[in-house]
Write a sequence for this structure.
């Protein structure tokens, strides 16, 4: 089955095309390929006996090249007197070639005069942008092409397919009932050095048909001159695949220039889909090893299904560490799409090898076979979807069970951020009423390390009943664990999204009672309106703004006004515990300063190999500096002792030694 490139939302179209217009200078035609590079495709779609109209011929030798191999019925037009005179003089030895001064938007030829309208770069030159004036001009050109072409005739156009051009071509001709075929001219790249192969050349073939009611669109794409044609269902699929080709070309060219150490490349994701599906089948990430003397020059690592959300595979930093661990100079890390099925690592290798090889370093020996690595015995892994739905607030989501080694986990994923786990729980095997084995959520286990350090704050209040406010439910793992393990606790949860309450209840064994209650409400409003006081306020809310440097919590939750309201919800010796995910150090520093203006002590644990940082803020007596560090450390130890007794745990919940090492107190 063919794999098609899929447009990725992070591909910066404007930057890509700005590069072209700066670099092409006065040599525009060279970007479109020479005759010997294009002739294989041109001869396939133009017969020697076809009457051909070449629009915007300029001083191109294309007509003469075709003439010299037997094409005699070629008429070339241009709006420049100088060009037409020049071309007539140059082609006196080719008496059948016709050159006329004429505007392609308004020709004088009779209807259905030609079998082919040939265009090399003219459409790109005229279609400068998508302003109404330019679009009107282009539609006039297309209408004129349709008028002079016979039924069954072809518009054959060589183009680089800027975004507005592919958008308009695909929709306009499909709407007219014309079959549209786009072929990538891979030969046009061969004469260029690898670092200049940034802009793929495409041949567009639109065939004039009479429009028929209820006719299904005929849209086809081939990724090479001799490649298999893939039938697509709609214009948007064609647009997406073309842009995907351009992304692949851009990355290959940057690598050829020696850009492997460019950090922006590490965030780039190239996606492939099956020809019969719009869903992503493979997502490819590139990483380069900074250390010399690697054991492997080039390899691919297949991330088992369900593990793509782990730090090692979902972050650029983690993938760099993976690259170093594999002692590989250049590594392609491959995520397997959740909509697809995979039978074996060998199947993946067979399907992906030609695509992965496009990113190999220079200097590899001929016939180099790319090693495909995976996580031990897991190979392609397994993923079982339990349910999917759509939240009015958070968008599409899926709940799935995955196996990691010998362990099983249940995960909630928002599809707007498919490489990020929203909530996760450990599964255990249990017999049901009919004595059949089934997997259920284990409420005595926590998956997220940052949750353990948030719970560590309870150690300051173990000698008495503790009231806890949790803002942000997710799958309910945090409040469920506190409720199950600390019987003197009373937990109140505030969750904005009613869908999350349903998911937590139906999929993650979340249950309310007199000690565990839930309000479906906006946490900001709750902070403002409540008269209740809590020993602990735990804020664990993600931001829906994926472009923000502050991923958790949303900025409104840590404004000066809201922080003061949170302080007002606390008992005099209470503590605010925040799950912070912030990629922008200046934002993080500003937040800590704001918190320091509200509480007398602010400290934090930035977890290694994770994006989370747990921040503790309090104004409890004798809570400053070293004293709060000592209190938290002692609290961690007390929680460990309590957990071992309460649920008969064999191992510590909190790594106290690591916590002490990571605990940073704001002076």
């Amino acid at each position: 089955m063919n794999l098609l490139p899929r447009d990725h939302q992070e591909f910066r179209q404007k930057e890509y095309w700005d590069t072209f217009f700066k670099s092409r200078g006065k040599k525009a035609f060279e970007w479109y390929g020479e005759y010997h590079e294009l002739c294989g495709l041109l001869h396939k779609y133009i017969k020697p006996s076809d009457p051909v109209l070449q629009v915007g011929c300029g001083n191109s030798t294309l007509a003469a090249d075709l003439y010299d191999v037997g094409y005699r019925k070629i008429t070339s037009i241009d709006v420049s007197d100088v060009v037409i005179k020049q071309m007539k003089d140059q082609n006196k030895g080719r008496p059948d070639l016709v050159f006329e001064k004429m505007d392609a938007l308004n020709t004088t030829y009779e209807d259905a005069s030609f079998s082919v309208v040939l265009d090399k770069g003219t459409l790109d030159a005229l279609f400068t942008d998508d302003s109404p004036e330019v679009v009107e001009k282009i539609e006039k050109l297309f209408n004129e092409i349709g008028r002079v072409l016979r039924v069954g005739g072809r518009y054959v156009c060589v183009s680089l397919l800027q975004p507005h051009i592919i958008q308009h071509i695909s929709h306009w001709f499909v709407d007219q009932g014309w079959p549209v075929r786009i072929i990538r001219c891979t030969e046009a790249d061969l004469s260029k050095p690898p670092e200049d192969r940034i802009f793929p050349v495409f041949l567009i073939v639109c065939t004039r048909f009479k429009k028929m009611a209820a006719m299904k669109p005929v849209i086809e794409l081939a990724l090479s001159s001799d490649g298999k044609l893939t039938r697509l269902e709609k214009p948007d699929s064609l647009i997406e695949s073309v842009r995907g080709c351009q992304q692949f070309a851009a990355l290959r060219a940057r690598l050829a220039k020696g850009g492997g150490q460019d950090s922006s490349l590490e965030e780039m994701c190239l996606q492939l889909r099956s020809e019969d599906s719009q869903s992503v089948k493979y997502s490819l990430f590139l990483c380069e090893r900074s250390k010399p003397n690697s054991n492997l020059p080039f390899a691919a690592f297949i991330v088992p299904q369900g593990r793509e959300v782990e730090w090692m595979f979902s972050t650029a930093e983690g993938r760099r560490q993976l690259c170093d661990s594999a002692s590989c100079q250049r590594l392609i890390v491959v995520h397997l799409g959740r909509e697809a099925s995979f039978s074996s690592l060998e199947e993946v290798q067979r399907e992906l090898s030609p695509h992965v090889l496009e990113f190999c370093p220079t200097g590899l020996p001929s016939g180099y076979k790319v090693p495909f690595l995976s996580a031990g015995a897991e190979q392609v892994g397994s993923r079982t979807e339990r349910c999917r739905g759509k939240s009015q607030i958070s968008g599409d989501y899926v709940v799935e069970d995955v196996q990691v080694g010998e362990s099983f986990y249940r995960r909630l994923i928002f599809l707007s951020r498919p490489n990020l786990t929203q909530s996760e729980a450990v599964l255990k095997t249990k017999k049901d009423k009919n004595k059949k084995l089934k997997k259920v959520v284990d409420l005595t286990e926590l998956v997220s390390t940052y949750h353990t350090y948030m719970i560590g704050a309870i150690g300051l209040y173990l000698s008495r009943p503790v009231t806890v406010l949790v803002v942000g439910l997710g799958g309910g793992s945090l409040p469920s664990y506190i409720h199950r393990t600390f019987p003197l606790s009373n937990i109140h949860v505030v969750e904005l999204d009613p869908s999350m309450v349903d998911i937590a209840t139906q999929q993650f064994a979340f249950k309310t009672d007199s000690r565990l209650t839930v309000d479906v409400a906006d946490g900001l409003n709750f902070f403002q309106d409540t008269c209740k006081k809590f020993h602990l306020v735990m804020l664990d809310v993600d931001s829906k703004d994926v472009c923000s440097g502050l991923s958790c919590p949303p900025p409104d939750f840590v404004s000066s006004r809201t922080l003061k309201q949170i302080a007002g919800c606390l008992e005099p010796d209470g503590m605010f515990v925040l799950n912070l995910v912030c990629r922008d150090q200046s934002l993080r520093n500003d937040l800590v300063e704001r918190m320091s203006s509200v509480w007398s002590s602010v400290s934090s644990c930035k977890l290694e190999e994770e994006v989370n940082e747990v921040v503790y803020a309090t104004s409890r007596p004798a809570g400053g500096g070293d004293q709060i560090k000592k209190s938290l450390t002692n609290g961690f130890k007390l929680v460990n002792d309590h957990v071992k007794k309460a649920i008969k745990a064999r191992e510590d919940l909190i790594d106290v030694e690591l916590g002490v090492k990571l605990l940073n107190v704001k002076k």
Notes: DSSP finds 20 helices and 29 strands in the chain.
